[in-house]
Specification:
Blueprint: E1 3-8, H1 15-20, E2 24-26, E3 28-32, E4 35-39, H2 43-49, H3 52-56, E5 62-64, H4 68-82, E6 85-90, H5 98-119, E7 127-132, H6 138-152, H7 157-168, E8 171-176, H8 180-189, H9 197-206, E9 208-215, E10 218-226, H10 228-245, E11 251-256, H11 260-264, H12 269-278, E12 282-287, H13 290-296, E13 301-306
Parallel strand pairs: 1-2, 1-6, 6-7, 11-12
Antiparallel strand pairs: 3-4, 3-5, 8-9, 8-13, 9-10, 11-13
Helix pairs in contact: 4-5, 6-7, 8-9, 10-12
Keywords: Lipid-binding
GO molecular function, one term: lipid binding
Protein name: DegV family protein
């Protein structure tokens, strides 16, 4: 059976992984003033887009996920021909409309695919499953990586589906944003009041950086540390502790809103890499997608993994 994997562009996974696993992207379109770019996870295009006035006004960006019709057309024009079963893994529905759009489109896709496949000489059934990752950025990538691993191992779609849906409940994303004022302005535009002006102002004045988590669709702060580097180091060291305690998948997924060489110089990075190597956990690294960058700011550090319930310490 031919199994396909689809993710939205806010899912942070390496570009070579996307290419090797033939993963299809549902792009999010980003508009800043008159500048418009469909986020296809192209690092060069993203960096070129976020320059000058565009970068300065990024917090004011409008983001538009693939519509129901666009998802429907992508499947009918390509995916129902290339695959027999497709897993569509989406950013948590609490932060993006892409899950709801894909879910709604799935009903019409399953009604309309038969004549399309028949015209190509294929009368076998087609199926798809839309998965709410309940996470963001690198956290979404954990599920995409696991889907590819299980596909390569020859697992059946029902087993993959059950595992991914269960794994979503145990996936944890952690992030250190570099600029509280930017984050506050961005989430205010989205109608989120979780970072007040006062906390942003105090945090900036004192150089206090929050460590944020996303789990089961809910985001919240779990720590505050003076200095970006110190906060990232604390997050990396905590991730190392979870690796030593035992992860549910052999995956540590990192994404960064900047050059990879900058990320690799951050304190605690090498220790985390060494810990993962000692415990046979594969580390994935990616440049954060454009839709993620405009939401949390350039220079944000994010990691995702799946583990048993825990407290950040």
């Amino acid at each position: 059976m031919r199994i396909g994997i689809v993710v939205d562009s806010a899912c942070d996974v390496p570009a070579d992984f996307i290419e090797q696993e033939d993963i299809t992207i549902l792009p999010v379109t980003v508009q800043i003033g008159n500048a418009v770019l469909a986020d296809m996870r192209n690092e060069e295009a993203t960096l070129n887009f976020l320059t000058g006035d565009t970068a300065a006004q990024a917090y004011n960006a409008e983001t538009t996920p693939y519509t129901v019709q666009q998802v429907h057309d992508l499947f009918l024009n390509k995916l129902v021909l290339d695959y027999d079963y497709v897993f569509c893994i989406c950013t948590t529905r609490t932060r993006s409309g892409i899950f709801d759009n894909a879910q709604q489109a799935s009903y019409t896709i399953l009604n309309d695919y038969k004549p399309v496949r028949a015209a190509s000489g294929n009368n076998t059934p087609f199926a798809l499953r839309v998965i709410d990752s309940q996470n963001v950025f690198a956290g979404v990538g954990v599920l995409a990586i696991e889907a590819a691993r299980m596909r390569a191992a020859g697992e059946t779609p029902p087993k993959i589906r059950a595992h991914l849906e269960n794994l979503a409940n145990s996936t944890h994303g952690y992030m250190v944003p570099p600029d509280l004022h930017y984050l506050r302005n961005r989430i205010k535009k989205r109608g989120d009041k979780s970072v007040s002006f006062l906390s942003a102002a105090l945090g900036t004045a004192l150089d206090i950086k929050p460590i944020l988590t996303c789990h089961r669709g809910e985001t919240s702060p779990v720590g505050k540390v003076k200095g970006f580097n110190a906060a990232v180091e604390k997050m990396f060291d905590f991730a190392g502790k979870r690796v030593r305690a035992g992860l549910l998948t052999p995956t540590m997924n990192l994404s960064y809103g900047g050059e990879m060489e900058e990320m690799r110089k951050l304190p605690g990075y090498e220790r985390l890499r060494e810990t993962c190597a000692e415990h046979n956990v594969e580390v994935f690294e990616s440049f954060m997608g454009l839709s993620g960058l405009v939401n949390v700011g350039k220079g944000a550090m994010v990691l995702g993994f799946a583990s048993e319930p825990h407290k950040f310490e």
